[in-house]
Amino acid sequence: MERPSLELNLPDTNEEGKLYVVDSLNNLNKLNVCPDRCQQVLDEEEKHTGGAGENTAGSNRRKKCLIFTTFVLTLLFGLALVSFVIFLIIQTRNKLDQISSRLVSEKKSIEELKKMHNMILMHLNQSGIKE
Predict the structure, then answer these.
(1) Which residues cross the membrane (predicted)?
(2) Rg of the chain over CA atoms, in angstroms?
(3) Range of the domain at 122
(4) Which residues, at least 6 apart from 16, have a Cβ–Cβ distance to it below 8 Å?
């Protein structure tokens, strides 16, 4: 037994009209395939989803919102990391400046000690005290 083809040559209509026709054909096919009990389940499903077009649009909107939120959070996380790295660089530079200033002051102290040592040796040599 041959089944009639559900393919139709639809005239150029807007997208909503095409979706309505396809949805109607799907419902008609379900009526032919499903018994009466099954139709009640299908009606309940349609009530919960609110129609296929609305569900798809809502899903796309949620996906876009999720992608946008993920993008914003990623940017904020990257900004926080960059700020932390800049903070560490500044702290390291400050510590290096402190260390270099200490080294310069220690170098001056060592040079002064060398001068004092040389002066003491000259004084000892002049006074005639020998080791």
Answers:
(1) 65-90
(2) 44
(3) 59-130
(4) 53
